[in-house]
Amino acid sequence: MNPYALSMIVSSLALGTILTLSSYHWILAWIGLEINTLAIIPMMTKTPHPRAIEAATKYFLTQAAASALILFSSILNAYILGEWSINSPIHPISATLLSIAIAMKLGIAPFHFWLPEVLQGSTLQTGLILSTWQKLAPMALLLQLSQSVNLNLMLTLGLLSTIIGGWGGINQTQIRKVLAFSSVAHLGWMLAILKISPQLTLLNFFLYILMTSTLFLTFMSLNTKNMYELSTSWSKTPALTALSMLSLLSLSGLPPLTGFMPKWLIAQEMVKQNMIMFALLILLSTLLSLFFYLRLTYSMSL
């Protein structure tokens, strides 16, 4: 890609996210999200392959639908309450519509269907941006909404995401699809605790970005795209393979690794809130995703 075009695209990506993060007004936040969406599309289509074009089209359509819903709900909120600022109290209907729209943007179940397909059609570099940077702006909006959202909706979406994220990843051999389903499962954990403790959502999000970036960079370095290629990585780069095995296990939430900490804290917080049954269900659903992380780890250690 032309370096001038690339620098324009990367700066637009940064601008879109920063605009949303620093916005006070719903329209400004929406503009930031739009710039973000439009900037990533040329990066997805820079390899003119039918899979890449299909991925970019799917991404554009879902993001455009979610953006339209964000615009609609913020206009509805302004019509009912006469208030455009993000940090002011929001009408319950608008809050529900906004949380559904942001769930679509993030790829939370049952709005997750685009995510594995889009990641599979993109390169690992674009996949890294999609899994980390592109989630910053919607997550910031969700955290600002955290006190207005419907608790039951969040818990339902969260549990559904952890189950579907675990279930969907079990049968996959393509690494990008596995990472997409892992993203769905992690976002489920963040959503489940969002209203009860936004700080834990932020902690979980930060650690998820850290570990996912590590894995994507590792796979870019090893140049592997499916499980069969992984089994030869040990002989090529033993140190890097050992590191990525630890990152995978950390992402699955095995103690004593970092990824265990947010899950433990979230489960503890839920037990404090007397949601013991819910905590049990969400922890059991993590076993599903643990299975495919262990499968990846096993194929790396052969």
Automatic annotation (TrEMBL):
GO terms (molecular function) for this protein are: NADH dehydrogenase (ubiquinone) activity
Transmembrane region(s): 59-81, 93-115, 151-171, 202-222, 234-255, 275-294
**Domain NADH:quinone oxidoreductase/Mrp antiporter transmembrane as annotated: residue spans:** 23-288
Where is the protein localized?
Mitochondrion inner membrane
Would the keyword NAD turn up in this protein's UniProt record?
yes
- Listed InterPro entries: Complex_I_Subunit_2, NADH_UbQ_OxRdtase_chain2, ND/Mrp_TM
Q: Which UniProt keywords apply?
A: Electron transport, Membrane, Mitochondrion, Mitochondrion inner membrane, NAD, Respiratory chain, Translocase, Transmembrane, Transmembrane helix, Transport, Ubiquinone
Enzymatic reactions: a ubiquinone + NADH + 5 H(+)(in) = a ubiquinol + NAD(+) + 4 H(+)(out)
The alphabetized list of GO BP terms reads: mitochondrial electron transport, NADH to ubiquinone
Q: Which GO terms describe its cellular component?
A: mitochondrial inner membrane
Which EC numbers does the record give? 7.1.1.2
Q: How does it sit in the membrane?
A: Multi-pass membrane protein
* Chief place where the protein resides: mitochondrion
rRNA-binding: is it a keyword of this entry? no
Q: Say what the protein does.
A: Core subunit of the mitochondrial membrane respiratory chain NADH dehydrogenase (Complex I) which catalyzes electron transfer from NADH through the respiratory chain, using ubiquinone as an electron acceptor. Essential for the catalytic activity and assembly of complex I.
Protein family membership: Belongs to the complex I subunit 2 family.
Q: Which PANTHER family does the entry mention?
A: NADH-UBIQUINONE OXIDOREDUCTASE CHAIN 2 (PTHR46552:SF1)
Q: What protein name applies here?
A: NADH-ubiquinone oxidoreductase chain 2
This chain's source organism reads Rhinella crucifer (striped toad)
Q: Which gene encodes it?
A: ND2
